[in-house]
Amino acid sequence: MNIVPLDAARLTGLIPSLAELLADAVDGGASVGFLAPLGRAEAAGWWKGRSAAVAAGRLVVWVAYEEPGRVLGTVSLALPDKPNSAHRAELVKLMVHRAARGRGLGRRLLTVAEEAAVARGITLLHLDTETGSPAEHLYRSSGWTPVGAIPDYAADPAGVLRPTTVYYKRPGADPAAPAPG
Question: Is there a domain that residue 89 lies in?
Answer without folding.
Answer: yes
